[in-house]
Amino acid sequence: MSVTLRDIANKAGVSIATVSRILNNDVTLSVNEKTRQRVIATAEQFNYTKHKRTQNNRVQKVAVVQWYSLTQELDDLYYMAIRMEIERSAQRRGLQTVPIYQNNMEDIPQDVTGIIAIGKFSDAQVEKFQLVTKNIVFVDYDSLAAGYDCLVPDFENAVRSVISEFVNEGIEDIGMLVGTETTTDNEIVPDLRRFYFENDLRQKNLYHSEFIFAGDYTSMSGYKAMKRAIERLGNRLPHGIFIANDPMAVGALKAVQEAKIAIPQRLALISFNDTALVKYVYPSMSAVHVATDEMAHAAVDMMVKRLKNPDADPCKTVVGTHLIKRQTTK
What we know:
Structural class: alpha/beta
Largest sheet: 6 strands, parallel
Oligomer: single chain
Number of helices: 12
Shape: elongated
Distance between the termini: 64 Å
Strand content: 15-25%
């Protein structure tokens, strides 16, 4: 007995039209990922193979532009996780993805219908994207003022939660290892974590400029920044330090352990991003968790909507965060 779309629809609990559009990779269909996967799984269970793409449902090509090089990405699992999940999610939605590293504009095919750009970009780079397509979604970069869809983590409340945690532990001397970096065309990228950190501490009359040390978001820079802090401050080393990202946190942890400083009794540490790097070091690192999978899925949803309605007003999505306490806080 042959299987019909009605059989799949009844089993999956959706309409026949929804089944047809999902199986034909209709990128304009607005449906949540769980429903999409349930329909596909049901079709596979029934061994249904009759669905074919029509000319109107041709696969659209989207460039996934990573601002890091492949080598840099391997050192920062945060950006890698976002890129990989964007590619998986896009392919599930029927989009063909083209990975582009280090913002290499020359590698972007001219036939792409959209760009999902991950990382930080200068105004000049944004203008170059516009020459390829107007359908652009930025991830981890606030492009709303420039007129483009974007997703960003909630830095403000994330930093506030870190400072609150330290204060609740009785720690009022709080430092930070900040990150400094530039776009691939050498434009300085401001760190909003530092902005909110300094602003919140000033409001609490707890700010000390000498407690801030800079790195470049790499593990080695975190190691060197923490060693400078230990050597310069001695007994005045803060009892709590917030670290801008996980690679720096791993390097900082090594410097603290070499100095035989007790964690968390003498020094509490909190990182930002919560990738596997900080979950499996010892002691495991408390960290602000950024939902990279949710960011990736939302970015693809934005792109699908943008492809459906290129003239819609731009949207900005702020992705929530939460603090996960492990062994580096009390």
